[in-house]
Amino acid sequence: MSIQIILLLVLFHFIADFLLQNDWMGLGKSKKLLPLFIHSLVYSGAMTLFLCGMSFGLFMFGAFDFLAPVYFFIIMFVSHFVIDFISSRVNKYLYENNEIRIFFNVIGFDQYLHYLVLFLSINFLFY
Description:
Elements: H1 3-19, H2 23-28, H3 33-58, H4 68-96, H5 100-126
Helix pairs in contact: 1-3, 3-4, 4-5
């Protein structure tokens, strides 16, 4: 995977995980499943669209399997839902108890897990 692809994927992740998440999703996902479900759905859909745009347009991943984007969407949705389910509830507790340093450590680890799943799934499905 080239550095250009990695940098684009990091940018796409930022857009899908932060810019496309509204206040209702961001504040509600630590309390209710519906905001978390919608956030995971939006994230996974956006990442799949970004990936398909890269595949067909800019970079052409190796031999393209037309089911790969479906598998990618499922992996992104399930992993994002599980990671955010745990991290949002942990961070809600930490924030309410003024554990700000640990709060930011959890956010960092949350992002690490998202990147790990993203890069491993792309490597497995498209290379």
